[in-house]
């Protein structure tokens, strides 16, 4: 291979690996290839987070190291590794403008892991790689704490522990299966301690902030341009889960109120209160039976919580202050970047105020004077219709909704690109194709042009019709925009123009589906019922992971103490219980270690019994004599009659020191050996008397 370039040598080595029996590789090559595979598996989930040059450099280094292991080539000089490390540091500085922080630190750790494999000259180098690998496993949870990541990292932990076990077995050729089994048993022994720490150790935040787990690239925002919600509606990821304590509201009543957008500059809608929270002046009027529910919100990137309309009793979030604003949204004092779960109470029948005109309500009449002139002219013409003379806000709203139903409008996920200051004109009077935000925005513009205060409300509408594991799922594809108009003596009234053009979207939560791509089209040929069942099962499992593991909070820790009999548990009680439990486990481990140190190895017990039997037959059998040497002495002393005993000793040597040694001694071999020695002695005694 000396005349080939590195790429050709690597390809030839991979072909050799393909046709070479794994068991016949030299142990150093086999163990190195196994470690490289574990490292590649550990780094793989970071592909979407790290710069392309880092992933490419790591892949080249790992392939190069595999080629050196297969060809028994010499490792590169340390000066070359230092030069590559300097280049990697420069590229990291170029990529992030810093060498400090989460992303630069993880990038350099991945580079160091790859380069360190080119320094595997001694066991201490391997230990550095192992501990770098365990550190990289932790870094994954700074990005995501999902069940898939946890399962992938569990495999990585098992692989690194197996490689660590192999490093502590320098003699012989132990199999990977044997090392993997030992590492699994070791991990299981430590599992109770980890479970105890999970239950009782105080909840603290991650080192570099909250992981962006579950945060979709799309989602609700504090502003809206025409077409943005159509992008959100093509995202099928979970937005929230909820479980009802009693009667479940019908789909048409499941509105989850998010940001309320009142200010319009001709192209973009924004909230009235930017960056500040204005509390509600008076609680809304409610009627009917309350709806008690438990909700789990995925990370939002927003401070506004999309809660069931209309939630009257605010959520209690640890470390956050949540206030109901004047627009009846619930807002936290900072954006929510982690999954939260809480209970709340809502009324689906409500009437928010104010009943009289205020300055805030008056502001919801504003329209840019130079935008959408044709739509404003159309609204003034409708307002002057003799049939609507003296009509109030409710009659005007119904007239606009009738126009939507009969005006040739269509509901689509792929509307034309409405841009510019006259986008409402293009939708309302020309194209007449749009998604929910087009209808809500146009409805509000028309109502304001007729002198009726109105505003856009964004959030989610509807849920999956069948609950999964008792939880109703609301997806990002349920993102929705509707409108509210103000009526004197009544207050704000909900109007959903989408129901006028696509009633199934509201009444039965039937969402539009985007055109399938190549992969989605192939999956579409599979039985839909099977796909739905598989998705439901996975989401039920993922929901249990979220509820039982990721959402395990400080309050639940104190609830554990209450279950143990503490009437009013405190953090001091939790700390004392944790210290006591760990001390008990430490004492138990010390007692086990003492017992294990003083117990006799079963192989030693077996050999001692065999030596006693041989000494009784006149064979010298010292403690350091292996079974093979004892077999030769038996043949030399007894010849053919001693052959069965010698063969049993050779069998024992293969069981104990062969390529695939047995885990425990064979009791039947001991019994046959002792019986054979007894017969041999009897035969020898009879021959002496004869």
Description:
The chain has 690 residues and is an alpha+beta fold. The chain folds into 5 domains: 6-200, no CATH class; 224-505, no CATH class; 519-550; 554-598; 602-689, no CATH class. It is built from 24 helices and 20 strands. The strands form 6 sheets. A 5-stranded antiparallel sheet has the order 10-13-7-2-18, with no helix packed on it. Strands 9-3-17-19-20 form a 5-stranded antiparallel sheet. Strands 1-5-4 form a 3-stranded antiparallel sheet, with no helix packed on it. Helix 3 packs parallel to helix 5 (102-116), helix 8 (176-200) packs antiparallel against helix 20 (571-598) and helix 22 runs antiparallel to helix 23 (643-657). The longest helix is centred in the C-terminal third of the chain and has 28 residues, at 571-598. Residues 205-210 and 212-218 have low confidence and may be disordered.
Features:
single chain, 5-stranded antiparallel sheet, alpha+beta, 690 residues, 51% helix, 5 domains, 20 strands
SSE layout and pairings?
Blueprint: H1 6-19, H2 27-43, H3 52-71, H4 78-96, H5 102-116, H6 123-140, H7 147-167, H8 176-200, E1 224-225, H9 228-232, E2 238-244, E3 255-261, E4 263-264, E5 268-270, E6 285-287, E7 291-297, E8 304-305, E9 307-308, E10 311-313, E11 322-324, E12 330-332, E13 340-346, E14 349-351, H10 359-362, H11 373-383, H12 393-406, E15 410-411, H13 423-431, E16 433-434, H14 436-449, E17 454-461, E18 472-475, E19 479-487, E20 491-495, H15 497-501, H16 503-507, H17 518-524, H18 528-550, H19 554-563, H20 571-598, H21 602-616, H22 627-638, H23 643-657, H24 667-689
Parallel strand pairs: 15-16
Antiparallel strand pairs: 1-5, 2-7, 2-18, 3-9, 3-17, 4-5, 6-14, 7-13, 8-12, 10-13, 11-12, 17-19, 19-20
